[in-house]
Amino acid sequence: MKKRMLGFWEIWNMSFGFLGIQFGFALQGGFMSRIFQTLDASKEDIPLLWIAAPLTGLIVQPIIGYLSDRTWHRKWGRRRPYFLIGAILSSLALFFVPYSPALWMAAGFLWILDASINISMEPFRALVADKLNEAQRTYGFVVQTLIIGIGTWVASNLPWLVSQLGVSDSADLGVVPNSVKVAFAIGAFVFLISILYTVFTTSEYPPEDMEAFERERKQKSSFVSDIINNIGNMPTTMKKLGVIQFFSWFAFFTMWSLANPSLTEHIFKTPAPVQSDFNMEISEDKEAFNIQNTAFQKSSNLVGSAMGVYGLSSMAFALILVVYTSKRRLNRKYTHMIALAIGGVGFLMMKYVSPEQLKYCFILIGISWGSILSMPYAMLSSSVDEKKMGMFMGLFNMFIVIPQIIAALGGVNFVSGLLGEEAINAMTVAGISLIIAGLCNFLITNKSAISYQPTEA
Q1: May I ask which residue range the UniProt record assigns to the signal sequence (predicted)?
Q2: Are 189 and 91 within 8 A, CB to CB?
Q3: Residue 5 and residue 11: Cα distance in Å, rounded?
Q4: Distance from C-alpha of 360 to C-alpha of 342, rounded to nearest angstrom
Q5: Spatial CA neighbour of 193 closest among 76, 20, 26, 25
Q6: What pLDDT score does 147 carry?
Q7: Which of 427, 372, 435 is nearest to 400 (CA)?
Q8: C-alpha dihedral over 75, 1, 376, 234, to 10 degrees?
Q9: Is it the case that residue 426 has pLDDT exceeding 90?
């Protein structure tokens, strides 16, 4: 099917739902470890508590990709029903997660939240490939990255912003502050509204041969056997991209799970108070806990705000790519390589910067994040069968979640422990991993994946 060239606002509308998805991910990534620490989790246990996130992605994304490939509704299309279901579930989970009274409940809510976000997210990746011809795909993924950057910055600053508006950062032992609760409630609202905007402003192409599509959909086939078959027939370029993704996402999982304990301790000198060190029936202990806990919560706001800067720089990077790729050929391979190396330097600098300089580290990290959200998907979409785009986008997620599972099961604690006991060593590990990911781009040799000339469409 020949697909017409879409204008900027059409691509913007079809990608706008990612604003809500990124609100969910930014609040989860920036503040879930803070919630765990508030509920008395040690920093050594935090990566394991995060294992729900990659595990749900490993299970949910291939299933949703498979189902959405085989879905067609005259009114709602192929991908949009999954956007909507995921948005409703994610909004509910976002609202309730900061009210968790116990650590196990917060971990359970993370499981529900990540599964729900994945239901919405995977079809969005496939929608870009569905709607855009190959000449516009890099452009489309970059616009998506632009919206993700906006969402990351705004959502990461929400607890700090509502705190500035007078909502309290103080809370009793084992209770999440109201500033975090209000921020998550705002995130839940934005998630639902932005997804609804895309659902009602975007149409989808029907299957090119509806009769053949219906026959294929009605054929009895095993989901498991189809998955195994497609893994076996995975394009070589996809496997090579998987190596790059492994080291990229190991680095970012390390950041999401351990940036708050690492940076509050190393840079702000305000580690989370250990609840067992305080007897809350003694007034002096209670006062000491409140002072330490409030300092930790306020520095956590500042860590979250600094992390939000990577959303801004990824947005700026995406804007440059939007302008460039709308008119010119882009070498995706070297763009991704350089961007990942820059982000690695940002992580390595964290060991040496002051609180005021921390934002510069995240500016560099944002450049790599902007590339991670666009270049691999643009390269992948030029390498797979369009009829199985949802399936392969779901399978590609394996290369995102497997490194996170390895990190959660002790990988990041083991590797950072080789460098010493300081919490900041986790950020050093993230930097080294991201630089390795950049070097792995030398593996990519497929010319259509590396570059696509717009005038050839």
Answers
A1: none
A2: yes
A3: 10
A4: 12
A5: 20
A6: 85
A7: 372
A8: 100
A9: yes
Query: Number of helices (H) and strands (E), helices first, in the chain?
Result: 20, 0
Question: What SS3 state is found at 452?
Answer: coil
Other Cβ atoms less than 10 A from the Cβ of 195: the count is 27
The whole-angstrom distance between residue 1's C-alpha and the CA centroid of its chain comes to 32
Whole-number Å distance between alpha carbons of 214 and 78: 13
Side-chain-side CA neighbours of residue 330 (13 Å): 25
pLDDT of residue 244: 94
8-200+222-456: CATH topology is: Growth Hormone; Chain: A; (1.20.1250)
Count of residues making up the chain? 457
CB atoms within 10 A of CB 401: 24
- What share of residues in the chain are helix, strand, coil (percent, to 5)? 75, 0, 20
- For residue 78, CA distances in Å to 21, 102, 199, 378, 400 come to 19, 39, 11, 21, 24
CA distances 244 to 236, 321, 439, Å, are 13, 20, 8
Q: Which of 153, 116, 203 is nearest to 311 (CA)?
A: 153
Element (H, E) at 248: helix 236-266
Task: Give the C-alpha distances (Å, rounded to integers) separating 215 from 4, 98, 219, 303.
Answer: 27, 47, 6, 53
- The dihedral built from the CA positions of residue 117, 41, 249 and 225, taken in this order, carries a sign that is negative
pLDDT at 383: 61
Interatomic CA distance for residues 18 and 191, integer angstroms: 8
User: Domain boundaries in the chain?
Assistant: 8-200+222-456
Phi, psi (rounded to 5 degrees) for 342? -60, -45
pLDDT class of 375 with cuts at 50, 70, 90: confident
In the numeric block, which tokens belong to residue 214?
A: 């219906």
According to DSSP, residue 384 is labeled S
Alpha helix locations (H) across 70-209?
Answer: 80-96, 103-131, 134-164, 178-201
